[in-house]
Amino acid sequence: MEKLFAIGKVTKVFGKKGDVRCKPLSRYFEEYIDEKPLYVGISEAVNTAVELEAVIPSGKFPSYRFSGVDSRQSAQSMIGQTVYVGVSEHDQINWISEDLIGFGIETTKHEYVGILKEILWLPSNDVYVILNGKKEFLVPIIPEVVRHLDWDFETIIINPMEGLLD
Known about the structure:
By secondary structure, the chain is mainly beta. It has 2 helices and 13 strands; from the N terminus they run ββαββββαβββββββ.
């Protein structure tokens, strides 16, 4: 089953051919915009499927050309809309979904760790901020640590490295 995940926001028009600039909302933006089915819209429920026709290098921030958007005027209507990718529920990008806030965190040995309070987007990797009473744990979101997301029981299973929860 495919679900939509927000990876960027259209911020402005670039040029006369309908190219747009996008602000990444995920560290996976560059990787996913080329590889996954794309949708642009005001919400997950109200969007349109699009195809990425071209990535146009232009200084520090590239521009993007989507199918069916071939003029500056049609690109203007996209400003403020969100770029979504279609992903499976097992896709690694789900590990950083805001929908996880409030999920319980358990170890692979069924030990309670705490509640997911926040997800930080850091340069080297994303991090879960887990709260347990007055204790706060920072857990890297990497495959060696995050083992499973259980959407039905709203639980994240982790395999903590030695010293991670001390």
